[in-house]
């Protein structure tokens, strides 16, 4: 069983980045590890965590599909509180993890709880539905944000 957080980087880093995984791969997947390693390599402290449905996949409960992204908002906020970064915090994640972070970012930013948002591979469209967008809330986003797509 993994700990609640995978922590990397210096404790005295100027910023901590909290990353959530995508819908189908855990916090220790190759892509999440590669992103965390790259961020640590330029001086960030990185904390990765899993939503409960993904953590359950590591147990005898087996593979359950991910819930709707918006239902994960309270879990992301709980991870922020539990992490207690102690300094400026950037939230984000890979694909669905970044989408969830983007949905809670403005409220947290307005309350001074986070400094920014980092989305890695944001899922602009639902799977198999290129005519639909999941970007409506991004147009009014006031939180400083970086959305990285592609290679």
Point out poorly predicted stretches. none
What name does CATH use for the topology? Answer: Rossmann fold
Distance between the termini: 32 Å
Number of DSSP helices? 4
Notable features of this structure?
single chain; 151 residues; alpha/beta; Rossmann fold; six-stranded mixed beta sheet; 4 helices; 6 strands
Characterise this structure.
It is a single chain. By secondary structure, this protein is an alpha/beta fold. It has one domain (5-148): 3-Layer(aba) Sandwich (Rossmann fold), CATH 3.40.50.1820. Helices cover 28% and strands 19% of the residues. It contains four helices and six strands; from the N terminus they run E-E-H-E-H-H-E-H-E-E. Strand 2, helix 1 and strand 3 form a beta-alpha-beta unit. 32% of the residues are buried.
Secondary structure topology:
Layout: E1 5-8, E2 16-20, H1 30-41, E3 45-49, H2 52-56, H3 73-83, E4 89-94, H4 96-110, E5 116-120, E6 145-148
Parallel strand pairs: 2-3, 2-4, 4-5, 5-6
Antiparallel strand pairs: 1-3
Give a nutshell description of this structure:
The protein has 151 residues and is α/β, with parallel strands linked by helices. It has helices spanning 30-41, 52-56, 73-83, 96-110, and strands at residues 5-8, 16-20, 45-49, 89-94, 116-120, 145-148. It has a single domain (5-148), classed as Alpha/Beta hydrolase fold, catalytic domain (Rossmann fold), CATH 3.40.50.
